[in-house]
Amino acid sequence: MRSLHPLFVLVALLTVSPALAEEAPKSPEKSQTAEAEKPRCEHGVQKSLCTRCNPKLAAVFKAKGDWCPEHERPESQCSLCHPDLAKKGVK
What global pTM score does this model have? Predict the structure, then answer.
C-alpha cells in the first residue's frame, strides 16, 4: 500500500496544476490586447470616447484640459498635432 502513495501524490499534482494555471493573473500584455480590441469608430478612436461621433463628450475633455482648439478634438486624440497617434490608426 505504501508504494501507491507517491503515485497518488503525483496524480493529484498533475490534476491540480493545470487548474491553478488557468486562474493566474493576466499579464500586462493581455490587458493591452484587450484595450486594443475595444470597438473603434471610423476615426480610429474608442467609440465611447470619440468627440466627433459623440459631440456631447467635448465638454468633458475641455473640463479636463484635454482639448485642441485648433482642430476641435481632444489633444489626446489629435493626430494632426501628434503624428504618432496616426501610426496607431487615429485619424
Answer: 0.58
